[in-house]
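Supplementary Methods S3. Complex input for the iron/sulfur cluster-bound model.
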Amino acid sequence: MNFNSLVLKVASRCNLNCSYCFMYNLGDTTYKKQPKFMSSQIVDAILEKTKRYVQRYKKKEFSFTFHGGEPLLASKEFYRTFMYKFKKLQEELKEVSFLFYIQTNGVLIDEEWIDLFKEFNISPGISVDGTSKAHDMFRVDHKGKGSYTEVFKAASLLKKEMNYTDIACVININEKPREIYDSFKNMNVDHVNFLIPDYTHDNFPFDDTKTEMADWLVQLFDIWVNDIEKFNIPMFIGLMNSFLRIGRDSLNEATVLVIETNGEIEAVDSLKTCGHGFTKTRLNITNNELDEIENTSLGKLYFNDFNRKLCRQCEKCPIKEVCRGGRLVHRYSKEKGFNNPSVYCKDLVTLIAHIQNYFITFFPELHEKENIEAIDANEVIQYLTTINKGLVTAKEKELESFSVENRELEKI
Ligand code: SF4
Ligand code: SF4
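Predicted complex, serialized as structure tokens:
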């Protein structure tokens, strides 16, 4: 098993109601059946099963990310109890290094929360979409009021008290990259994880004959790469590393396992975008071991094959090694399951080509000594349209087994 991280949904509700949220607003309503908060019994089961998993697979490092909904809706007492119980686990597994993260919308962050993060060594990440205009367009409360003012204060407080600001930003192409970039500079952030919005082939809102997402990202890359006092952007660093074959690229998700508030085990929560109940596996931490996820069709695809089992177009794509089909959710359609290229395919080609071309200009020896040619995005896009569909292979059938019709048959 290749996951070293659990995402714990400690609260299933949220004090915000972001319009693009896959938890509440993209068709999956399973949250309504979840208890509002994770119970002490579920925490016990998580720690017990983590212990067995870590021992069985001889893990040296393991992380927990507190998530939601909004994880700061859970009480401070919940976190104190969790960490008290965790201490016993750490005593039994002294050789394992455990890390703690929390991903919050930031609205409730205050000095008391920051004291708690410091006390237990929990690294917070907050969600900010850049400028107040971009942020308040989608990240609103239940009355439709934007949350930027509170979140800006939270970011400043984190910088002051913890000297580090880690941001997750869903890209909003309605706002100019320069303005988004400068707004983060103004916040004095350290790290911004830019996220391409989660859409499938069934609800993609952009014009697929254009490359609006890539055009935006290319502008952002040029601003970033020429800034001498830049903050970290893992997407760009990951792509540059993948050209040098260092580590993994960052167009794909990290492999984590999700534990819902009631203990249900799920492979990856962004797939809630694929439809109501799509991520359900029938596994629960109280009755099952973590590695049993491998026996579920979704777990098998996600943990073992999602970068290897690609549609025909991706398989024959000249930049497959870098792109690897992009994120799993972006490949989905109700009709053909995961047997599709990414909805952002043209964007991915354009972005990857731009960064690779930059690299070659910067290191001409790559071209001269290694004989690496600059990628021509238009040529690749044109080539991809010529790939013959042909008869459906066994591998393609497997990817199509996630079509809405087949998932219904599984009755999960
Ligand atoms: S803050 Fe996060 S969980 Fe809450 S509505 Fe927004 S995207 Fe969803
Ligand atoms: S660029 Fe398109 S065809 Fe190539 S691997 Fe990525 S999604 Fe697949």
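The chain has a mean pLDDT of 91. The pocket of iron/sulfur cluster (ligand 2) is lined by residues 313-314, 317, 319-320, 323, 325-326, 341-342, 345, 348-349, 384 (CB under 6 Å).
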